[in-house]
User: Which sequence fits this backbone?
């Protein structure tokens, strides 16, 4: 018999056994190689991962694919040690990270070259995400002190800006600032429509006052033409501008033109009362639009302040004095979180509904960290809420409950969707990641809230989960392009072990 044939006989038997074993049908990579790394067998998963021919001879070296020189030799040196090894390969310039298990193939009758069987699991995506998180954490650790000071300075500045905006709002519309109900978006829109109607009436009287000669002496003809051209805009601004947020700046621009024109009218040529009424009506509308914009800016400042405060607390976790673990009630944590976010909820016009107020549910751990985690969840729910259909204002719902082993904090909101793929792949929990739908209407965020809350839950032996589904009974199909343009019910559930 040909010596080469006797040498190949044990390999053939091995490959036949591999083809018959159930392992070959599992989604894992299996290969057989010699001591130099020459691959003599690779299943279809290995061929796909290493971009080898789908069929036929392999003609490849696993040793040449190792990213580090001598990587395969180092792997062989640990062959008798049980357990997995992290392996880094370069496949056509692409980084591949694997959990690798290696074992010896028992010597065959005529086999004079040792063979090794390897089993690989592709963990590239998880490894890259973990490496990015670790790198970010290391950077944050190095810069923690400076970042904490910067964030503290910024939050102090935002407090000052917030107080200044509040004072400006009070000076513009003191009765509106004092009456919370009157500041609801629908009430403000009604008031804006009323003032626009008053301005239309006053401007119409001005345009009809005096004879032709006195009008020309009072104001240049092109200015009168411009004023006449503004009437249709004032009368039909809701139909002409379908986006409510854009109406405010448009009306303010119109009132500015009217005020400038009225102030240029030469005295003694037009009835003083008519001019005065037009000036007053234009000023009233301009003041209201400024008031609405200031309140919107104040909402954004409060939102930014809350995000920065959470980021500062998260960033300085490792350098502050750790609070000792202790028993505490979840109700107390939820109550404190709601109180902390009360101003943000008021500015965002979101009602916080606490449906279950069980006072006796206790957990054990770091109360400060759990408080930060719950605050993150409630803050996100407020920030990503939409105005509910059939309700005067948007709202979020909070529930706490327990069973024999665990306690639950559930925070639900009606508004911005979270795509299912983001949940299934865990993207929503990646450090710095913000959902595809989270940036509508200029919402601010850091992308650490869910990451931080999940880590806190897991550090206490619990978990964090997210669900997001269409809010309406009859909604578009997931394949429809409008599927994620509808409101979703999004619920985040934090589970913590009960105190024993």
Assistant:
């Amino acid at each position: 018999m040909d010596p080469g044939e006797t040498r190949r006989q044990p390999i053939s038997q091995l490959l036949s056994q591999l083809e018959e074993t159930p392992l070959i049908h599992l989604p894992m990579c299996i290969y057989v190689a010699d001591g130099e790394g020459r691959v003599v067998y690779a299943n279809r998963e290995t061929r796909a991962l290493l971009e080898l021919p789908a069929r036929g001879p392999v003609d490849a070296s696993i040793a040449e694919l190792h990213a580090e020189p001598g990587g395969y030799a180092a792997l062989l040196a640990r062959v008798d040690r049980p357990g997995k090894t992290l392996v880094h390969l370069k496949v056509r310039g692409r980084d591949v990270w694997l959990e690798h298990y290696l074992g010896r193939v028992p010597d065959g009758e005529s086999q004079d070259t040792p063979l090794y069987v390897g089993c690989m699991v592709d963990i590239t995506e998880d490894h890259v995400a973990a490496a990015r998180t670790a790198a970010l954490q290391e950077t944050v650790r190095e810069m923690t002190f400076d970042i904490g000071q910067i964030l503290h300075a910024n939050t102090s500045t935002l407090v000052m800006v917030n107080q200044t905006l509040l004072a400006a709002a009070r000076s513009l519309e003191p009765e509106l600032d004092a009456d919370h109900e009157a500041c609801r978006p629908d009430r403000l829109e009604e008031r804006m429509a009323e003032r626009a109607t008053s301005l239309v009436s006053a401007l119409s009287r001005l345009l009809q006052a005096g004879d032709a000669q006195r009008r020309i002496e009072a104001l240049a003809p092109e200015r009168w033409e411009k004023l006449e051209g503004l009437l249709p805009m004032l009368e039909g601004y809701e139909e002409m501008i379908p986006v409510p947020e854009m109406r405010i700046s448009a009306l303010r621009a119109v009132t500015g033109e009217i005020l400038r024109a009225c102030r240029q009218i030469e005295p003694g040529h037009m009835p003083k009362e008519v001019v005065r009424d037009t000036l007053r009506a234009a000023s009233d509308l301009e003041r209201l639009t400024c008031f609405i914009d200031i309140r919107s800016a104040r909402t954004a400042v409060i939102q930014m302040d809350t995000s920065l405060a959470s980021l500062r607390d998260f960033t300085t976790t490792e350098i502050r004095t750790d609070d000792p673990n202790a028993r505490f009630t979840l109700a107390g944590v939820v109550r404190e979180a709601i109180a902390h976010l009360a101003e943000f909820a008021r500015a965002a016009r979101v009602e916080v509904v606490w449906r279950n107020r069980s006072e006796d549910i206790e957990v054990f751990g770091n109360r400060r960290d759990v408080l930060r985690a719950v605050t993150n969840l409630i803050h996100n729910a407020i920030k990503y809420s939409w105005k509910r259909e059939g309700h005067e204002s948007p709202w979020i719902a909070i529930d706490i409950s327990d069973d024999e082993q665990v306690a639950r904090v559930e925070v639900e909101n009606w508004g911005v969707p979270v795509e299912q793929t983001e949940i299934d792949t865990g993207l929503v929990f990646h450090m710095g990641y913000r959902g595809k739908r989270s940036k509508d209407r200029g919402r601010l965020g850091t992308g650490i809230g869910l990451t931080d809350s999940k880590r806190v839950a897991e550090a206490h032996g619990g978990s964090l989960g997210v669900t997001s589904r269409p809010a309406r009974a009859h909604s578009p199909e997931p394949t429809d392009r409008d599927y994620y343009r509808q409101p979703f019910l999004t619920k985040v559930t934090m589970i913590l072990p009960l105190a024993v």
